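User: Hi! I have a protein structure encoded as tokens and I'd like to know what sequence might fold into it. I'm fairly new to this, so please keep things simple.
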């Protein structure tokens, strides 16, 4: 059973987690050295080619390090959250629905309070489909990298030491801190990132996998950046759908950070979490079964002997074979 749902503790994680982190440091160092040979990728940090290279390579590095640890632990790589079960596609697409519903509801509330305007289309014809597919693929890898990177093996290993929720909250704080380096990020945005990290850990706890969280994460970023064309963690991407803009106080719109730093974002996250809670109820823990002790062999033999004595015919019984011979 996965540590995502089991209270098992394993002190071997004390050396496995540092080994995993060391592998990541080495692999990312090699990747950065290779990336330096392609300086054009660094000139446009928000371009789809740059983001795709960074996110896909990041996911591949995390997956490789996790695979090495899976060989050491003697378990399948899927135990860390991306197992290809019969319903993994269903969970992924349900996550996409959650993500699109969350960002659509959030934008709708901000617009209802006069803080969002869609503007005019900035794309036309086949360019809409081309950019939509491009950004859908990029944000899919953003979802894979960030979810597997922060809620994959590292959460699995840390949960072995301190328990699932302490590990999930600790990694959520790290997740928020990492996002603080994004241009335009603000402290409400960092708090929002922390909250959604805990929510994604909650979906992992309930479903036993990361597929729903990956879909939710990717769809939210796609909707925020492309469909509604507003800043996403402080970044505005090229090739977005419209000339949308936010206007009004920061508490309402999120300011330079984007809608995810809006005060309304926390209310929408709470609502989406409640909906998920009712759609994915906690599975009841089976009651422990009392062990059945085997009956000693001597007791079995005594019971069998007593049964034979109870059914044996008495000497005075006229139906017994001996009395039948005497009467003849």
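Assistant: Happy to help. Inverse folding works backwards from shape to sequence: for each of the 328 positions I chose a residue that suits the local structure. Here it is:
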């Amino acid at each position: 059973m996965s540590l995502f749902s089991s209270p098992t503790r394993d002190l071997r994680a004390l050396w496995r987690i540092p080994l995993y982190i060391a592998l990541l440091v080495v692999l990312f160092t090699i990747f950065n050295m290779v990336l330096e040979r392609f300086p054009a990728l660094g000139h446009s940090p928000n371009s789809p080619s740059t983001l795709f290279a960074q996110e896909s390579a990041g996911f591949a590095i995390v997956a490789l390090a996790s695979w090495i640890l899976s060989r050491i632990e003697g378990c399948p790589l899927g135990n860390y959250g991306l197992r290809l079960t019969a319903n993994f596609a269903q969970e992924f697409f349900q996550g996409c629905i959650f993500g699109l519903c969350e960002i659509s509801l959030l934008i709708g509330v901000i617009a209802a309070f006069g803080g969002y305007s869609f503007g005019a289309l900035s794309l036309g014809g086949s360019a809409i489909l081309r950019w939509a597919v491009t950004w859908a693929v990029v944000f899919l890898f953003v979802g894979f990298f960030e979810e597997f990177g922060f809620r994959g093996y590292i959460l699995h290993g840390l949960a072995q030491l301190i328990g699932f929720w302490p590990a999930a909250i600790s990694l959520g704080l790290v997740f928020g801190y990492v996002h603080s380096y994004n241009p335009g990020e603000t402290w409400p945005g960092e708090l929002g990132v922390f909250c959604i990290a805990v929510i994604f850990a909650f979906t992992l706890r309930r479903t036993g996998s990361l597929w729903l969280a990956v879909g939710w994460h990717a769809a939210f970023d796609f909707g925020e950046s492309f469909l509604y064309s507003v800043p996403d963690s402080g970044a505005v991407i090229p090739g977005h759908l419209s000339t949308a803009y936010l206007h009004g106080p920061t508490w309402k719109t999120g300011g330079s950070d984007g809608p995810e730093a809006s005060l309304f974002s926390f209310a929408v996250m709470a609502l989406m979490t409640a909906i998920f809670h009712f759609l994915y109820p906690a599975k009841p823990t089976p009651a422990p079964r009392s062990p059945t002790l085997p009956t000693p062999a001597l007791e079995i033999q005594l019971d069998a002997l007593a049964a034979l004595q109870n059914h044996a015919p008495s000497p005075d019984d006229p139906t017994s074979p001996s009395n039948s011979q005497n009467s003849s």
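A useful reference point when you look it over: Confidence is low (pLDDT under 50) at residues 290-295, 324-328. Feel free to ask if any position seems puzzling.
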